[in-house]
Structure formats: C-alpha cells, structure tokens
Amino acid sequence: MGSYENLKVWQKSHEFVLSIYKSTKDFPKEEKYGLVSQLRRAAASIPTNIAEGKGSYYNKKLIRFLDVARGSAHEVEYLLLLCKDLGYFTDAKYNSLSQDCNYILRMLTNFIKNLKEDPKN
Q1: CA gyration radius, the chain
Q2: CA 40, 28, 46: angle at the middle one, nearest 5?
C-alpha cells in the first residue's frame, strides 16, 4: 500500500500546515494560546489523521481517519475566516489559505469516495 508520505493529499496537507505556522507566527501575543494554537492544531490534525489511517490494515479504518481529517479541514476553514474578520489575515492571505484548504477537502472527499467504491471493501 505504500507510505502515507507518498499520498498527494498528505503532501499537500503537510505543506498547508507549514503555511499555517508561517502565517500565524506574527499574530498578537494574546492569541498565542488561543486562536493560533487552535488553528495550528486543527491544521496539523489533517495530515496526522491521514498518516494514522494509512497505518491501518483496513480501508474502513482508513476511511474513518480520512473523515476525521475532513472534519479538521472544515474547522480550519472557519478559523481562517475568523482570522480574516479579526484583521489578522489580509484578504489575499485568507484567499490563498482558504483555496489550499478547499483543495485538500476535495482531495480527501475524492479519496474517501474512491475507497468506498473499491469492490474489495
């Protein structure tokens, strides 16, 4: 089955986490243990759950972890909007991160769909 590191969705979500870390490093200090921490944890949860699911022998378990990753991506979607509305992200930064997040969501959705359609499941 190969390593999780070979999955394009994992690669993209890992890059996304790195972007989130870079994009939040200059947030106000009062947000360090609030919004910054929550956004970073939610973003990191995406590739983490992909990796954990990929470690399973069963596609049903992998699908469950991919679904958790999707939930985390939706959480990130909202947190990005909140950051923009609070003035922590410019419109351009928000649009860029939001597009990346939506792309990852589509990748996860398609991956889950393909696994469910596999006759071996």
Answers
A1: 15
A2: 10
Q: Angle 12-17-20 (CA atoms, 0-180°, nearest 5)?
A: 125
Cut 0.90: pTM above it = yes
Asked whether the CA dihedral 98, 27, 45, 33 is positive or negative, the reply is negative
Name which of 76, 13, 2 is nearest 50 in CA terms: 13
Burial class (CB in 10 A: 0-12, 13-18, 19+), 25: exposed
Q: What is the pLDDT of residue 1?
A: 56
Domains of the chain: 4-22+30-117 (1.20.1440.60)
Please report how many Cα atoms fall inside a 13 Å half-sphere around the Cα of residue 120, on the Cβ side.
Answer: 5
Q: Which residues of the chain have a pLDDT value below 70?
A: 1, 119-121
pLDDT tens digits, residue range 47-71?
A: 999 999 999 889 999 999 999 999 9
